[in-house]
TrEMBL record:
PANTHER family linked: ANKYRIN REPEAT CONTAINING, ANKYRIN REPEAT DOMAIN-CONTAINING PROTEIN 16
Transmembrane regions listed in the UniProt entry: none
PROSITE patterns given in the database record: ANK_REP_REGION (PS50297), ANK_REPEAT (PS50088)
Compositional bias per record (Basic and acidic residues), positions renumbered to this chain: 94-103
Top-level taxon in the UniProt lineage: Bacteria
Keywords: ANK repeat, Repeat
Signal peptide segment: none
Protein name as catalogued: Ankyrin repeat domain-containing protein
InterPro entries recorded: Ankyrin_rpt, Ankyrin_rpt-contain_sf
Entries under Pfam families matching the protein: Ank_2
SMART domains reported for this sequence: ANK
Length: 112
């Protein structure tokens, strides 16, 4: 039976179980075919609100994809200021060079 959440009989929300958190952590740390992490994908999709959660789940902030780009490189290339700032606050290196020798800071064109 599906519950109507206006129904007083609906179960109380509960914190996630450890197994669910472990599964979320594994998924968050996974990489796709080009080596991108969930951080890369969240930045590409403009989903800046996911970044703090992914960082808390242990996604490596300076993980690189096949092109040597970190999520910060992608945020810089897109001009995504909020994503850029959140990643820097999470420990991303604005001076890290990709395979083309580009740094996020230079791609963005401003000092974070």
């Amino acid at each position: 039976m599906l519950y109507d959440y206006d129904d007083e009989l609906a179960p109380e929300p509960r914190p996630p179980r450890r197994e669910a958190l472990d599964s979320a952590t594994v998924l968050a740390r996974a990489r796709d075919e080009d080596g991108s992490t969930a951080l890369h994908r969240a930045v590409q999709a403009g989903e800046w609100a996911l970044l703090p959660t992914l960082l808390r789940l242990g996604v490596e902030v300076d993980a690189v994809n096949r092109d040597g780009d970190t999520a910060l490189h992608l945020a810089a290339r897109q001009g995504a200021r909020l994503s850029y700032r959140l990643l820097c606050q999470g420990g991303a290196d604005p001076q890290r060079r990709n395979r083309r020798g580009e740094t996020p800071e230079a791609l963005f064109g401003w000092d974070h």
